[in-house]
Fold:
Amino acid sequence: MDSTQLLAEAKEVVRDLSVRELVEEAIRNGEGTFSSTGALRVTTGEHTGRSPLDKFLVDTRLTHDIVDWDNNQPCTEETFDRVYAKCEAYIKTHKVYVKNVKAGADPQYQIRVKFICEKAWQTLFVSQLFLKTDEPSTVAEDFTVISLPGVQADTATDHTHSGTFILLNFDKKVILIGGGMYAGELKKSIFSVLNYLLPQQGVLSMHCSCNVGSRGDVALFFGLSGTGKTTLSADPKRALVGDDEHGWGENGVFNIEGGCYAKCIGLTEASQPEIYHAIRFGAVMENVVVDPKTGYPYYSDDTLTENTRAAYPLDYIPNARIPSMAGHPSTIILLTADAFGVLPPISKLTTEQAMYHYLTGYTSKVAGTERGITEPQATFSTAFGAPFLPLKPLVYARLLGEHIARHKVNVYLVNTGWSGGPYGTGRRMNLNCTRAMIHAALDDKLGEGGWTTLPVFRLSIPNTCPGVPDRVLNPRNTWEDKDAYDRSARQLAALFNQNFAKFKGNVPAEVAAAGPEA
Structure:
């Protein structure tokens, strides 16, 4: 499908606008307003987060045997062509904005992406979130993303779950997005593309943040939303490579994007100064409540959604590494927010344990985060990013294990969740303590006082850590009722084992045995 021919029939095409011009267009179109920070503030209507039930991969002869259909919804080529025809007809009567960007900072693995967007603010978003290019938007692209919120799918004829759709066609290299305005769909659609392409080149694609120290030591931070991935990687003592999506190839680690998409809920200058000051002119704030008269943002207000976001280019972070590439990592941090208060604040993993916990991708939801949740609930997401993985889980896990072994990487499991009891009884892990433990791990100062194996989960925990009370390091010690801790540990272990059962028979025996006791 030729984007040149598609755009030739559009009502009006606006190409290659600058950041300032896109902001002005968005304001002129009534798509957003200025906040007091100078950032463009927008709302995304009904969808304030991703719509996983509305995402489909086109099932073709080339993809049928490669894609993991247990984790991805198929749609037919006929359905894709029908929805594409709707988009084609819509563009003929509507103005669209075009922007060429690149994804993948390492030129060896880079792809060119053309975004065709109905909204000027979404075009600004992709301009800031992806790597800029000097190529004009008439240059042939590797992938095309067409985002038209005004187009609705027909559930009866298009076999979708709603009027919203995200359709990825790897054969035709076209992504169709419609029926919703949440910009995270644009970002994650390209991540899904690279999760399909990169592993087939022997490159591990990763849902993680990355930073690098003054000695050139590289650290990766894996974790689901709410575990502190963005917060902990934005470290004033270390250069930020990227906050969310990376590849790990033969040249080392590289950022897939050129910007950051940070959660804003509860943001303060004291807690996250780098992110706080990055929200300025050129940034896009999604669904942040602002004072209607002054434009002052109320970051603690979750009236519209808890998933408030800010998008800004990487160079808005003062210690960002440009270009966003680094060497091979020496440390990997797997983050979890355990609301059961069972897991230790930090533990060191073997390669087999790293693969086990990577496949498990555990964190937990707490009361109030979603409708109907009244107590902590365990949630598992393979590779800490299952919704974006087109291929089978073992493809990614094997690559991780091979990279860890080849480069002798230290791997740690870090719990940023609760200590001293579960959510409602215990307390959230102190951020300063978590930072101290991570710094100790990065500086090889963790465990200088020896290690202890935690029962049930069989994790190696340090006896000492600079700047952290010894009592905090063993979670059982922080509970007043030790028997209650033991019961909770066994209950959580059972949930781990129940979840991992789906991998049994497909993973090496030593990986399957690296989890908690049965």
Remarks:
- The chain is about 25% helix and 25% strand.
